[in-house]
Amino acid sequence: MSMQSQAVEAPSRDVFYRTEEIHAPSSTMLGFWIYLMSDCLIFACLFAAYGVLGHATAGGPGPKELFDLSLVALNTSMLLFSSITYGFAMLEMEKGRQEMTLVWLAITACFGLAFVGLELKEFGELITEGYGPWHSAFLSSFFALVGTHGLHVSVGLLWLGVLMVQVVNKGLIPENKRRLMCLSLFWHFLDVIWIGVFSFVYLMAVL
Question: 188-197 burial, b if ≥16 CB within 10 A, otherwise e?
Answer without folding.
Answer: ebbbebbeeb
